[in-house]
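Lab meeting notes turned into a lecture example. A postdoc, R.K., suggested we walk through two folding results consecutively so the class can see how the record format repeats. The first protein's sequence and structure tokens come next.
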Amino acid sequence: MSHSSEHATKIGILVPVRLSSTRLPRKILLDLAGKSAIEHLIERIRLSEYPDIVVLCTTVNSVDDELVEFAGKRDIPCFRGSEEDMLERYLGAALAHQLDLIVNVDSDDLLVDPEQIDAVAKVLKEADADFITCEGLPFGAAPVGIKVEALKSVCSWKTETRTDTGWGKYFTDSGLFKVEVLRIQDEELRHPEIRLTLDYPEDYAVFKAIFDELYREGHPVRLREALKLLGARPDIVQLNSGLQEEYWQRFKALQPTVTPVTGSPETK
């Protein structure tokens, strides 16, 4: 990871994380090949070139004291904010670390790769976009880019205080922001049918199979090699292949409704 002063623009990777998950308790501390899931994620995303800092964004809930201790022992910057208002938590972390641009990597998404983090960061910097998504990657392998000025704008006018699910709609559906989509054309990476996020026990079984097979100390598992393994082992893909419908039903039930805004002074 680059920490040089040549960047006038400060870019941070924010990793939202909390221990109060219900479907798979304490999931990001589950063991994968001798290390916790979150350690594998941090180890890999620290390989990215563009961002200047990785920050764990946890909550003020006392159950997450353990995460703060965990981060402190590993020299990972940590920010504590709202449990349910994810956007306020991101904004607090961005202001605390004086960030201009954010690459969001969900802690459930254990195989988000530096290659895509850097691609998103590059577009954020060079295309002057407010919000960036990736299309075509496996579900759970896509980082999201956010300009901090756009995040400030959303937090100034949104009325919903629970934004832990579907918060991207504030940027994509409000009509206020310049949204870019990174379309992944590389056939090796283009596998939207594969689910790579840690939400259910079946997801853990998939990651366990991948990390048991591929992880070597000091060599973080990369997305490309994981997808090569899954291409050769459809039995692993099958372990969680039936979960997407249930996941989306729950997601749709919890996501906010965002009304497009017209004539706002915030509009570009």
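The second example is placed directly after the first for contrast:
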Amino acid sequence: MSTPSIATPAAALRAGHVETADRYAGISQYSLPQILAIWVAAALPMGLASWLIAPALKDSFSGAGNVPLIKSLLVCLLLGLIWEFLLVVWLVRREQHTLRWSVVRNVLWLRSPRSPSTGRIGGRLWLWVVPLTLLFAAGEFVPTFHTPANRDFATWIGSHAGKDFMQGNWAWAGVILAMFVFNILGEELLFRGVLLPRMQRVFGRGDWVANATLFTLYHVHMPWLMPGTLVADTFAYVYPSRRFQSTWIGIVVHGGQTLFFGVLVFALVLR
């Protein structure tokens, strides 16, 4: 890539900081078996937690109607997301032999968005998160197959049973908030921080398409989310994370959903 020319210090200040180094530097590329092994390590536990473990443990939780299953799903999926975060930590430690922030932020692309054409970093590039967040929200309107009301959190929490359960229930609100947090720390750091920068050798310029496909199929624990994930999420934060070589794009856009549901949960608790 050619170095962008900036005529004067004043022009450089107006343009923002410029970075000419490729963010792939210093990142080990994975083979196809390694990529698939990491995908299995994320998808399999979540699938087992949702369809086998949670139903088997639901009688350990109190409540009427669907509440025991919802409680069991929340706990089991939270543990699955925590596992994904720990997997990220282990993979980075194994690759880099350190967890120093100065290293972690580079190898997980935890850097401000970088223009692929000019090398400019941050600044107005952050404005992209506004339309991208709207595109992500539009994924809710993508047609999908049957969504089971007793398993889908968004459907359940909008029901009378969900609203009654959440009223004044700070303990379970804390569990839900933890699940939201690790949804970002697990999914985004694993798929956009670890996998996406390490898929170029196998998939070339189509690495973001492969990443989006794997991320869609990962949702075996909630398959009704797959159409929206493939159609909307791919262009809302998978491709932008690759284009701007910044995991923060995915974290911020994906985190918009977390913020929305977090506010909703605490509004119901305080009713």
